[in-house]
Amino acid sequence: MNPTVGIAVILTVLQAAHCQMIKDLSACLLGQNLRVDCRYENKTDNPLTYEFSITKDNRKHVIHSTISVSENIYRGRANVTMHKNLVCLHLQSFTTSDEGIYMCELRATNDYTGNQVKNITVIKDKLEKCAGFSLLIQNTSWLLLLLLSLPLLQAVDFVSL
Fold this sequence. Notes:
Blueprint: H1 3-17, E1 20-30, E2 33-42, E3 48-56, E4 59-65, H2 72-75, E5 78-83, E6 86-91, E7 100-108, E8 116-122, H3 132-139, H4 142-155
Antiparallel strand pairs: 1-2, 2-6, 3-4, 3-7, 5-6, 7-8
C-alpha cells in the first residue's frame, strides 16, 4: 500500500473515532459574573467529563471539574451547567484578578483519542456583555420560541393596499 494512502486511512479512522469535538469557546459578562461557553459536537451517548481551568502567572488553576479537584478559591464562586452540546462555566464576582487564559477540556467516557481542549484569553475590559436573546435561544427550544412569538405576529396589523 502507498504510504500516503495508509496515512490518509489512519487519519480518517482516528477522526471518526473522536466521540466529541470542541467547536467553539466564548466568554461574556452577565452583570458582574463571567460566563464561558464551551460548545461541542458529540457523536456518542457516553458520559461527558469536563474541566474548566485558568492559567495565570504560568500556573494552571482548576476552577470547576469532573476530571480533577477544583481549587478552594473557586469552589464557592463557580458552577457549571450542561445543555445539549454546551457546557457553561459561571464564575460569580468576576474581577481583574480572574483574568487569564481560560481552558475548556472535554472527554467522553471510552474515547481513547484523548481530551479535547480549547483556550480563550479573558480580559475584563475587553469582554462583551452576554446577549439576552442568545441566552433565550440556547436555553429554550425553537418550538417554545415560536409559540411565544405568535401573539406578536398576531398584533401586527397587515393592511392590504
